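ok new one. same drill as before - structure tokens go in, u give me an amino acid for every spot. 80 of them this time. try not to just spam alanines like last time pls lmao
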């Protein structure tokens, strides 16, 4: 069974969450909580999957910028 993407349902999710580029730790934490909720859903809809992917991209961008791994940090992780 192929699930179709419901644009109206996705727009409703976007209106509820209002995702945007993360500029603070508080926003990052909020999106992390939403991601955890979505990950806990056993039967995510295609619209929820799309929102999940979007939030993960935003979180990764924020964390890459604010918590960069240095070569020293990477080496210490590899040796753990």
């Amino acid at each position: 069974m192929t699930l179709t993407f419901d644009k109206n349902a996705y727009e409703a999710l976007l209106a509820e969450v209002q995702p945007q580029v993360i500029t603070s730790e508080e926003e990052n934490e909020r999106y992390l909580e939403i991601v955890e909720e979505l990950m806990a859903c056993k039967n995510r809809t295609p619209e929820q999957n799309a929102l999940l992917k979007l939030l993960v991209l935003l979180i990764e961008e924020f964390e890459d910028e604010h918590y960069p791994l240095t070569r020293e940090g990477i080496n210490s992780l590899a040796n753990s």
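The chain has a mean pLDDT of 91. and btw The radius of gyration is 16 Å.
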